[in-house]
Each structure stands twice: as C-alpha cells, then as structure tokens.
Amino acid sequence: MAQDDAAQEQSEVVAEASAHEIVEPVCLKDRYRDGARNLTVALYGNGFNASNDCYHLMLEFLLVLSTHQKLHPDQSLSDQNNQFASVKCDDNGKITYIRRRDELLRRILFNNPFLQLVLEQYSSDEERWKSWMDCFIDYNVRTTDSKTNPPEIRFKREALKHIKDNFSSFSQFVQTVELLRSWSMNFDAANQWGRKILFPFGKDTVFCELASNPNHAANDLRSVSTSSNYMTGCGELMFSMLQRACSLPYAIKDDDEFHVSGDKAADIARLLHLCFFSESDPINREASRIDKSLTSSDISVSDGADVAVVADTFRDREKITRLLPIKNHRVFKRLAEDFHSILSLGLSEQDKFAALGTIGMLNLMVYLLEVGKEIIDWQRSEDASERNIDMVIAINASLKSSLHQLSSQRLVSNNMLLEESVRHYAQVFADDFDAHSVLSADANDGDRWNSCAQFLESLYRAPKQNKAQDDDADDENEGQNQRISIDNKNQKDKESLVQAVAKGGPAFKDIHRSYGDEIGLVTRTSRNIHYYYVMSDSLIRCLVYAVLGKERYMLFDDFLKRLYQCYHFVIGPNEARAYHSDIERTHPSFVQEQEFEANAEALKEQMRCLNLMISLSDGFDYVANKYGN
Question: pTM of the prediction?
Fold first, then answer.
C-alpha cells in the first residue's frame, strides 16, 4: 500500500511539472491547486461572462478602485504613491476590496415613491418630514425568509434623522433626490431597484448591485446579499490587469514597445481619481448628505430575530477579487497605455466612462484571443501552423464579397478558440501524463486512466452554475463537492477523459462574439444568418482616443498599423498582406488586394463623417484627434 501511495504521489509530481510547462513562466504560483475551479477558469481567470456589458465592467472596476487609498492631486507626481503599486495582493495575486451596499441611499432614491405626493399634500416642513418618514419606513419593511412567523425588519426614525439635519427644507431634499435619480442607470428588465446604479461621480455614488427575490414584492428585499448577475467579476479582473501592468518591476523596466513607466503608472491612478472620485464633485456631495452606514441602532426587529445579526446584513462586505492566473501579459500593458491615453484627454466624465469601458472590453477580448493562441500553439505538431487570431473588419462591404465572407469566417474561428484551447490543453495534459506515468508497465489501461482522472479531479472541479452567485458565500469553497464526473467503468479511454476535463461553463459560451457585439465590433446580417466584424462610430472614436492619445494627428496608414499591432484588426492592404503571409502555408489568399484598398477607403469616409479624418493637398490622409495637443 505504501509503495502504491508513493508511486501515485510521484506520478502526480511528474504530471504536475509537465503541465506547468505551458504558461507557468508567466503564471502565478499554485494556481493549479485552487481546488474550486474548472480548467477554463484555471487557464483564463474567473469572472468572464458572455453577459457582461461595458457599463457594469467599469462600475465594478471603480468599485475596487474606490476601496483603496486616494491620491492627492495637489502633490507633485514624484511625491505621489503609485495607487496600483501600493495595492496589496496575496500569494495568488488576489486583492481584497469592499463591496459597498449603500442600501439606505438606494432605497431613498429608487424605492421611495412618496416625495412629490408629500410635498404637495402638506404645507409645513414639519408635517412633510413626519409624513414622508412614516411612508418610507412602512414601504421599506423587510422580512426574513422564515416560513413561520417571519420577523419584520424596519428602519427607525433615527436612521433618517441625519437627512432632516442635512437639508434646510423638505423641498431641497426632494430636489436633491430628483437630481441624483436623473443620473441613475438601470439595466434590469424587471426594473428592480436593487439593480439600479448611479453614475460614478465619487465614492459615495459607487456601489454594487443587490439581489432581490422575484417571488416577493418589489419593495421587499429579502436577500440583501450582493450578487453577480451583472457584476460578475470581470471588472475585478480588469483592475488586477491594470495593477500588475503598473506595479510589477517587469512592467516598468520592460523594453517592449508598450511599456508602462513608473510615472505613467502613478499618473493613471491620479487621473482616475480626478475623474471619478473627486471630493469636490457637487453631485457626490449631495449623495453623501443622504448616505449613511446602518447599525443595529438604526433598525428595529420584531420578535424572532437577533437585532445584531440582522444589522450585520446591512454592512459592507470585504471581497477578494476573482482569480487571474496570468502574472504578466502584453495586453495588461496595452490596457494601461489605453487608459492613460483616454484619461489624459479633455473629455467629459461621461465620455471617459464610456470610452474606458469600451477599450477595456476590447482588451479583454484580445487577452482571451492571445492566451488561447498561446495554449493552442503550445506543443503543436510540427506540420501544424500557428493559430491565427486576426480580425478582418468589413467596412461597408457587400454581403456577397469575399472580404465579407472572410470576416465572417474569422469571427467563427475566433469565437471557437476558447473551447478549442481548453480541449487542446486537456489533450496535451493527458498525453503528458501517459508519457510520464510511473505506473508499472503491466498495469492495465483502466488503472492508468483512473489514476490520471483522480489527479485531474484534485486540480479542477466544476463550479456551481447558479445564475446569481452570492458574493457573501465563500468563493474558495465553491463547488467543492462537484468534481469532474469520471465513470470508471465506461470512461477509461483518453478521449472520454479529455471531454470530461475540458468542459467549460455556460458563462464562456460565445463570449468573443458577445463582447464584440457589446462594443460595436460585431454585427449580424439582416436575416441573422451569420455574424461578421465591423466598426461602429463609437468604437472608432474610442480607438482614435486610445491610439493617438495627446497626439493631434497621425497618418492614416500608421493608424491602421497600430490597430493591427495592438488589437489584430485587418483593414487595409498592408495589414492584409501581413495576415495572408502568416496563413498562406495552409490557406489560399482568395481575397484580392483591391478589396482591402476599398475597405480602407470606406473607413476613411466613415471617419470623415465623424470629423476624425483630414486629407491634405500633398495626398496624405491624417487621423485627427480634436482633443490632442
């Protein structure tokens, strides 16, 4: 028995070592021992979801940022602490932050229909305050989920006293609420108040979503825990990417074209705080007059519940950011460069918010593509060519043109990349385990594959597939009893083992296409027959801001070259030649160069309509950035 245990342990060490050869030089230590992740999450990260949108991505990113110490804009740049370098990480690169609830503020803004009625019905402020408080407290009664005699949870008048003290009149309070409501963003089809979010004018206007039970009344929030229906963790991953690009030594000393210097890293943090967390912002100041952290003295509970326990459900929660297994990647530095370019421009807060969300999601798309390519190219057969991840953009192309067909084919190929990469990794892992197995040569195949399956079970476990994951739960224990299903009787062959290990969750299905559709990079034909790559007006503006930064003009050909280098966009003939030279060993170049020339001209015309293009008498075309120097 001892010999068998020793042999098993040795086989695990050998298999683990060979598995780490793929991306371990750029991956964090012990990521394979997480114990609560499936293989897709272990390779890419935990938080990607096809239902993500740009607005919740940015809101979640700012929620993490708002937790950490603010910079002082009046200090010189050399005296400032690097916001991202000072963020503390654990051994796996995870960051602790606070998920703000601000439940009282949100109930007053979004679950409070009595303001105008009270204002018109009573003449004196004293009557108005008293009537409104009574109505608000009665309307916002919360009950527990107990099936028998559920205790009621009510706000006390003391919880609302600070509001009366902070406003000179009831009408001023009503005007403030209406002002804040005008800056609300609601992305929930059921119009649940717990899903409504304010535009981030400051720390007091940034909070997470709340989960409500659709079986109860709209005003009754029985489950006060935060959920991940919309803020799924993708914003947390983006924060981790930016933090790693700006803080680690390789990001500062790297000779790569897209390096991030120490001063620039600190400047990104300073500009983010200036834009979204300025203490002098008037709208944020108005929100702070209403906001309050609730304690046990602010609520009353009927018989059947502990006041202290109930009060604990109102407090903000510490949260650990999702797993981002890769320590260093080119896309992280590109993301930092893009953020710095956009934040340095004289755009409004709303325009910066939208542009950062768009460019952030685009970089997440590129990250998934490049990591997938690295996985598939790892230990590929000698006669197989490298995987191509270029995106051929069809600018106003005819649906019957070969360029349009190529664009559609590239989209299909890139959309399948994530699934193929996970399967490839599982296949190589199984092959490696077989090749390095230290089991006796006369062991039967069933014993060998059962041993491999047991080891893989210890590394990857299928997470829960709940639509709304409660963030108050222990994420590290998620799915601890839901291991990979390996039937020892029927799944002894390598193919069955690979299929079992390579299964990904529904959150990753069609994620490339979904992200592209969200940012205006993907569209479909009028009959929804197929999808292809395009560039919307808003995406073009965002790319001009990110690529040019403070530059006023850039040659159009240089602009296309940067789009190809940074985001793998194939638009003009020069990029087409690079694309075809990369794949011509296995694929014919059936798209004529004239089609790409017409494609580039169509983009010029689109940019002229947006006032982003000028043509000089010398025959050169320039991309124009009106916010540049």
Answer: 0.83
